Amino acid sequence: MEALEEKEEAEQTAEDLSSLDTSDSLQNVETNLSVDQVSVPSDVPGFDWSSIDTSHLPDQYKTNTWMEKQLLLIADHFLQQYTHVCPDRKPLFLHPVNECGVEKFVSTTLRPTLLPYPELYNWSGCASFVSNYLTREPLKCPITPPSSLYSPTTILKYQRGNCFDFTVLLCSLLIGAGYDAYCVHGYATLEICTLDQTKEPCPLLRKPEEVKKSSKYRVKIPPEPYSKFELQQKAKKKEEIGGVQKKEEVEEVVTELEEAKRDPLRGLRVHAWVLVLSGKREVPETFFINPFTGNSHSTTDECFLGIESIWNDRNYWVNMQDCRNGCKDLSFDLSDGICWEIMLPQNNKLLEEFPEKDKDDMKEKEETDKSFEMPVSWVDRINISCREFENQYSQGKKEFLYMKAKVEKWAPYMNGNGLVERLTIYADFDCTEVVEVTEWFKNREDMLEMREVNKQTELITDYFSPGHLHLLKAHTYRSLEPETGHTMEFYHKARDDDLQKRVESATEMTEYFVGRDDFLHIRHVEFGKRENGMNVAGTRTDVKLRPIVQIKEYFHRNPEKPADEDVEERIFMITDDSIWLTYHLEAHDTIASKVAFLRAIQRDRKGEEIFLTRDTCIKYQPWSSEKHKNVLYQYKLLEKLRKEQKELKRQVRESEAEVLDILKIRGDEEANVQLSFSIYNTARREQRQE
């Protein structure tokens, strides 16, 4: 095993040296690959940063104060010590030049700012804003940090930058919001550096993890008894499994070699991201933030391969820990001088190892370093206008490719229909066969919030926020034409009839109710064919009513009534002129009572009358009292049911009319989409009036 590891290290070292000694053409090819693999506009590499106008920038951008000059001297002195102690490590990223060509220490480039937007008070909102607002540019050389680091104000103005620009802006917002955040200079995988997410599942498709709440008052289960013999057998099995684990370790080494072959620059690709330590803002656990995506990652994530240094607006730390296993085993206790070497020591201690000939000069500089504090940031206050915050995309739109999925995002009011986000799910890895499309909308007056389109079943489901004219919550359909199959859900608490859902087709309609005083929860209506085979005419108003064949209703148990008087199901057979009743059961009953009125109405010379005979009234009531066997009681019950049948017909016709009205309104809303504007957004309201 040791021989295999030595061979692997030798091969890796040879690959690293060969990659470092390659010509500039290899670096250009690598840069081009990075650009092609990221979903950014094609004109990004053509942007010339050297042509930007810096004449309007303040003086602190173009010169250094005495404090900043002293800081640069301390940084150079710190770098000399670092290179003496760690001669094999790469140079630190300490004081690159800014947009005016002036060297500035990286900590002074941070500008902690709290912006007046509620979304930017949490880390997720800040990360999402930075990843959406800026356009990614690759590093000129993927294995070395950039030679320049521009101010966050300039990056915001041109809305583009590399990973270091993303990180500095995001860290400035997080520190301003109260987080213990740090910029990280390290190494990451090819996918992280090039924003290649085609091998990752879409975050919109991930199911939220269920949080299990533990209570100190829960009953403690005693431990189960165990057998010593079984423990001995398990120990033997572990010894046998030890050989299997060795094989797995060999397989891991082989996979690492394969990854190195796939990416010859693995472990050398420079990347910058944000570290958020636990403690402040009630952060329970330390985590990373990838500024390109705005997603959080665990500190043990295998995508991050090592850390060179970190810094915030007050100090700079160098990682002195071994990163052979990536960031898995790193300690982020910055007060530990063995793991992290600090530049401006808080305990009046610099690096101990230094050449003897410079010890006298060291003593003089230590006296100044003891009282030295980080200068204030040279960057102007970060300002983002309401219009800029609203339009978070440089070109109005951004695309993200994932495994079998694509996400598209637009700025509000960019699309006339209010579309702000679209998720397309594919059946294949080449993203050619569309399975489902989900769209999100904002600021629509019809309160449409989301739309799901299933390309296989051709079903469309619209979801509405509260406030629609007909209190719609969801609408599933294939076409907005009537009698083509519609499922409508409502905000039932706002309706007088407590209707929750209505399912309507050409032959039937089912309504579901919640919380009604009469305990009705389902009404099912069956329709017959129209006379002369007539169908719906060309206009929605010219519709011939469908004949009602049957109305069936279901009721919940009413505890205030005895079971033999509480109807569970009643069926009105309109064409057969009959009524069927089924009653609830008591706890000790086994068979429900039933009553049927068959063709109870007969016509004579005097007109319509109600007759009750043994042939027209059939009942089975084994648990009922003598009152229910009385003919007068049955007569009044039938008379009441006849009145309710007429009322039910009227309600069914009203439901049909409501369906037609909703479909007509939905058609008009889709044909002429209207967007709403805030009363405080004067610019949008004036634009709409014009």
Automatic annotation (TrEMBL):
<feature type="compositionally biased region" description="Acidic residues">
    <location>
        <begin position="1"/>
        <end position="14"/>
    </location>
</feature>
<feature type="domain" description="Dynein regulatory complex subunit 7 MORN">
    <location>
        <begin position="395"/>
        <end position="678"/>
    </location>
</feature>
<keyword id="KW-0744">Spermatogenesis</keyword>
<dbReference type="GO" id="GO:0007283">
    <property type="term" value="P:spermatogenesis"/>
</dbReference>
<dbReference type="InterPro" id="IPR038765">
    <property type="entry name" value="Papain-like_cys_pep_sf"/>
</dbReference>
<keyword id="KW-0175">Coiled coil</keyword>
<comment type="similarity">
    <text>Belongs to the DRC7 family.</text>
</comment>
<dbReference type="InterPro" id="IPR033551">
    <property type="entry name" value="DRC7/lobo"/>
</dbReference>
<feature type="compositionally biased region" description="Low complexity">
    <location>
        <begin position="15"/>
        <end position="25"/>
    </location>
</feature>
<dbReference type="GO" id="GO:0030154">
    <property type="term" value="P:cell differentiation"/>
</dbReference>
<dbReference type="GO" id="GO:0030317">
    <property type="term" value="P:flagellated sperm motility"/>
</dbReference>
<keyword id="KW-0206">Cytoskeleton</keyword>
<keyword id="KW-0282">Flagellum</keyword>
<keyword id="KW-0966">Cell projection</keyword>
<feature type="region of interest" description="Disordered">
    <location>
        <begin position="1"/>
        <end position="25"/>
    </location>
</feature>
<keyword id="KW-0221">Differentiation</keyword>
<dbReference type="InterPro" id="IPR056290">
    <property type="entry name" value="CEPT76/DRC7_peptidase-like_dom"/>
</dbReference>
<dbReference type="GO" id="GO:0031514">
    <property type="term" value="C:motile cilium"/>
</dbReference>
<dbReference type="InterPro" id="IPR056291">
    <property type="entry name" value="MORN_DRC7"/>
</dbReference>
<feature type="domain" description="CEP76/DRC7 peptidase-like">
    <location>
        <begin position="270"/>
        <end position="343"/>
    </location>
</feature>
<dbReference type="Pfam" id="PF24656">
    <property type="entry name" value="CEPT76_peptidase"/>
</dbReference>
<dbReference type="Pfam" id="PF24667">
    <property type="entry name" value="MORN_DRC7"/>
</dbReference>
<protein>
    <recommendedName>
        <fullName>Dynein regulatory complex subunit 7</fullName>
    </recommendedName>
</protein>
<keyword id="KW-0969">Cilium</keyword>
<keyword id="KW-0963">Cytoplasm</keyword>
